[in-house]
């Protein structure tokens, strides 16, 4: 399994999420319980209604890796909390747990100042509405020595030979990640991928 390739999609995306176009210490109060269900590609996820969709022009250099991207409108020090779903083709089918383990292992290898905070077993619903085991990964890291340290909450899923990474980026000062975790737990696959 090419672990570097499996991380490529979200590693490429992380600088975008840390950049000024998204915005360092916004309040999480705008998450609330007022959510909007977004169905795109073969996935569905809920995002806060108060957040804005990030337009494709903001990340077009990433190609077709980004499925969903939303950002809070609460900016502080040029940063706003955000959520993305990215996908990548895999060289073969892997279980969601295998995909999660590979990404978690490689986070420490490829990210600067990586600190694992937590790893939790979770499930998501597949296209047949069946529970699929995976993991949620909470960590702090920076893309390079010049980037600010951020907190990341990720969930990993596979469908056939497609790998999905669902990511929330927030500040390291954010102590209660439960609202973000609940957002990620709304992720599910709604249809099978075409081969």
CATH architecture annotation: 3-Layer(aba) Sandwich
Largest sheet: 7 strands, antiparallel
- What is the tally of helical segments? 3
Residue runs with pLDDT of under 50 for 5 or more positions: 1-28
Q: How do the helices and strands follow one another from N- to C-terminus? A: HEEEEEHEEEEHE
The tally of domains stands at 1
- CATH topological fold name: Protein Transport Mog1p, Chain A
Which structural category do the helix and sheet elements fall into? alpha+beta
Termini separation (Å)?
20 Å
Write down the overall geometry.
Answer: globular
Description:
It is globular and about 40 Å long. The protein has a 7-stranded antiparallel beta sheet with strand order 3-4-5-9-8-7-6, with helices on both faces. The chain starts with a helix and ends in a 6-residue tail after the last strand. The protein has a single domain (3-24, 34-189), classed as Protein Transport Mog1p, Chain A (3-Layer(aba) Sandwich). The chain has 3 helices and 10 strands. Helix 1 (3-18) packs across helix 2. With 195 residues, the protein is of the alpha+beta class. The protein has helices at residues 3-18, 96-110, 178-184, and strands at 35-40, 43-48, 52-53, 66-71, 82-89, 112-125, 131-142, 150-159, 162-171, 188-189.
Q: How is this fold's topology laid out?
A:
Blueprint lengths: L2 H16 L16 E6 L2 E6 L3 E2 L12 E6 L10 E8 L6 H15 L1 E14 L5 E12 L7 E10 L2 E10 L6 H7 L3 E2 L6
Helix pairs in contact: 1-2
